[in-house]
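dumping the sequnces here before i forget
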Amino acid sequence: MENNLLLTYLLLIPLVGALLLLSFSKEKESSIRYFGLIFSLASFVLSLVIYFKFDPMNAGFQFTQKFIWVEKLNVSYFVGVDGLSLVLVLLTTFLTPLTLLSSWKGIQKNVKEFTFFMLMLEVGMLGVFVSLDLFLFYIFWEAMLIPMYFIIGIWGGPKRIYASVKFFIYTMFGSLLMLVAIIWLAVYASGPLGVFSTNLLDLYQVGPTIAKQIQYLMFAAFAFSFAIKVPLFPLHTWLPDAHVEAPTAGSVILAGVLLKMGTYGLIRFCLPLFPQAAIAFAPYISTLAIIGIIYGALVAMVQTDMKKLVAYSSVSHLGFVVLGIFAMTQQSMQGAIIQMVNHGLSTGALFLLVGIVYERTHSREISDYGGIAKVVPLFSVAFMIASLSSIGLPGLNGFIGEFLILIGSFKSEVLNSWWFTVFAASGVIFAAVYMLWMYQRVVFGEYHLSEKLGHLTDLNTREMIVLIPIFVFIVWIGVYPGTFLKLTDAVSASIIHQVTTASSVLVK
Amino acid sequence: MIQLIYLTVLLPLAGFLINGIFGSKIKNEKIIGWIGSGTIGLSFLIVIAAFFETLAFPVEQRQHIVTLFNWLSVGSLNVSIAYQVDQLSLTMALIVTGVGFIIHVYSIGYMHGDKGFWRFFAYLNLFIFAMMNLILADNFVLLFLGWEGVGLCSYLLIGFWYDRKFEKSTTSDAAKKAFIVNRIGDFGFLLGMFLIFLTFNSLNFNEVFTRANALNISTTVYSFIAIFLFIGATGKSAQIPLFVWLPDAMAGPTPVSALIHAATMVTAGVYMVARCSIIFASAPAIMTVVAVIGLVTALFAATIGLVQNDIKKVLAYSTVSQLGYMFLAMGVGAFSAGIFHVMTHAFFKALLFLGAGSVIHGMHDQQDIQKYGGLKKYMPTTYKTFLVAAIAISGIPPLAGFFSKDEILWSAYANAGFIYWFIGVITALLTAFYMFRLVNLTFEGKHRFDVHHIHPHESPSLMTIPLIVLAVLSVLGGFIGIPEIFSGEHGNNFHSWLAPIFSNAQIRLAQYGSHTHFEEILLMVLSVVGAAGSIFFARYVYLKNQKVAEHTASKFKGIYKILFNKYYIDEAYDKAIVQPIFKTSESLLWKITDVKLIDGLVNGTASLIELVSGKVRKIQTGVAQTYAVVMMLGIVAALFWIIYSL
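..and the predicted 3d for all of it:
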């Protein structure tokens, strides 16, 4: 059981792909693109194999593999997945080939480097989700920053340097606090365990025994780092800049997967490692989450740049996820996890669509467009579906997540107040306002397109191939969410159980 | 056929998919139109079959649940895609598919030549799909799916001609407004659902209502649930304070106004309240709120209807007003009377809108009644059917509107008091007046348009046959609900059919009819005489002595202006709510908090560090790789330091 190689293969495929790419000559752009696509597709296929072999009834980690890496520090290469990480692994391997395919035309310079960084990014992201050793986790967490930094910094827009440095400094600042906390935790573990340990499973036993005041500090250090990544209000201002400047593929991955690393971290580490602190902090963090929901939506409403609007909408959507996590009920937790996927799909699709018009016209200003439904009907339909998914129309994926989060937080004993849900639910009104208003201004009305923009053409086959799989899942999750909810059932119950029992034992 | 009820949901969905995906390739209007109408026609036949099958069951076995699959199952939350076939849902389904089919057929003629023909039928079918989910759902979540789904279709269809001008902006502004105002209502509905789940630990109708009937739960909780749900209803059914979207919804093609904004979707709120009758009956204070809101909306909208000049606007305010009656019925506990009015209103209001569509069609898209006149000789069928509908809505016996409206007024008197009845009757008089103002200005008198340029013509038979069918229904539809005092021992058929649905609520309301038949007949005569007088007055004012109207308008200029501008409600909402939110978001939240405050802090910290580290700047190469390497070295060094110092 301790030696299942599947996850290691999953990490190796994009890594090997990236390394092999280095041997390609720079001019062979087309073969480089296909090569990258094939390797990312291969990881998707492998993750599907893992999905089919996965036992959803089992709340523990599966496909684990472990060997001692740094003996002196008792650091292991230790990987495994449970329902939570599997869902995010699938999201990552699903989105990566699509983003590569979406960059066929948008990325024209340094294709080789771009593909290399995208594959390395995939390694980093997958590593974050499968690591069961805090040290290993931290390495992936940091390593993944580097390709993202370059993707924004090299292929980004005019203010890319400012954006990438801001992104780097913001997240680095958070990471350092987390590093300190990891080391402290490992040192503390050597008390009860008799040995310095960064093994997550060991720490799950040790964490809840930490004295309350110190737990608070530890929790704060971890949560701060994750909150920047989410991003939680008021730590969100790196996001709009990073999104606006990043190339389409970067935005899709950033919104689709990177932000989820923050919420993933909250569930995987903050809750079970520091249960007492998590419960004590829950109302405060939920308050920030709600401010984020409303604030993000209101600021999104007044944006003039489509990409910035979608970026601010992410702040709002992720607020829902954080609320769901800290409400700590079965519904809200599963809702939060499915909402991470939903946001990846709907916001991913929105960024792709904005990218598609940008490629043609080089403008993202809403006021440059009007009534384009006449010229680009397919695009308009796709944009409509993505918008409706984003505003949580029942029958599509967004509703499932939001509904579960709201209904779960309404009856949450940890939060113990209706007000969280009442305020959060008002977000559904604002979401309709900013999305439909943008949609209306761009797609409906009388046709006009700024002269400087040239002309628009409708979606081509490649773009349809990128979008259709996303739409399939948008509808699938909306109509038959059971396929996905069953993956997160056991793990959500187990995490909530871990938190509540550990904290109640200590209280007694 | 009961077991096949899901086909009435899936057939419209299939129609939507076929026309939506292949419509632009099919091109042939006949094929597209008959695919769209045929799916609804088939659904109608299935509903009829299910109706007779249900009728064959004994009264206590008339509820059937058809489950398709488990939709959402998390913890104790468990909802399915499941359809509940019972007296209430069948009644609604008959209206929706029946009137829906008629309007689909009419649309083949009305939309002829429109380049979005296929798109129109796709949306229309999608609407029926959502509406059927709404009324057949066996749980709140599926109902909500339909609830938001019809809102989406309404949005798509109001903005159908998305590049056309509408009033000060475009049709898509009206569409957006409709969706957003509805979402405000949905917010209330969601909270209602959450509180239901918290209270009853279920969202299935049967479980919730059984528990509501059996458990002893405080009135406060019921009041909260009821008021939240009612907020949802005011959005969907255009009641005060959320009615503002419906008049603007007239920007859509006229068949849409008939189907969605008159006959079916807007009655969803009434249906939902009726479905949850036990909850409302357990919250007496909220029942009063419902009745008062309904009554005030009915009167308020009718006064606006008096002075509007756009034929569809008059009908829109009339719809708001009639919906007010339905809520009055709900609020005074006359649930089946309210549903009865939903049905008769669907007949005559759909007829009025389709008639208006026929006029607009024949008058080259002119909608201003000041530019009509004397049209009855050009479009006799439209005239006759429109007249029937106008008589029906005015409450003249024995047409459909008389029976349903009179029953509501009587219940208001019997259960709530004289003042409810009185305001209701005043509204009825106003209704009769503005309807006949419309009839007279449109069809009677001299023409006020340029006969050299406009050649009014009767519509094709695809449009007039639906008018005739609806006219027949508007005449005869009331007879299925003849009140007890006329029908004797048989009682009111419509009531006894729906009675089992509302029996628990009625018990809880515990109303005892202590009024005499004499009172009932007296009030009935009063309202009929009043309405008839109103009709003749309108005839006098608009045909015999036009000066009276002009004179009154100029004498009460202030009031006229207020009514004409719809009490300035839109402007007030804009100034008091919309603008402040926008301005605050833009300046305080975005440009101050985000850009100045938070970013200022971040950038400030960065420059502070830069200032302090001015001396050691040489190390800072500005190359991120170097940073990364240095950072990793630092981490490793820190680790070693910690390990060896242990």
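The first strand of chain B starts at residue 64 and ends at 74.
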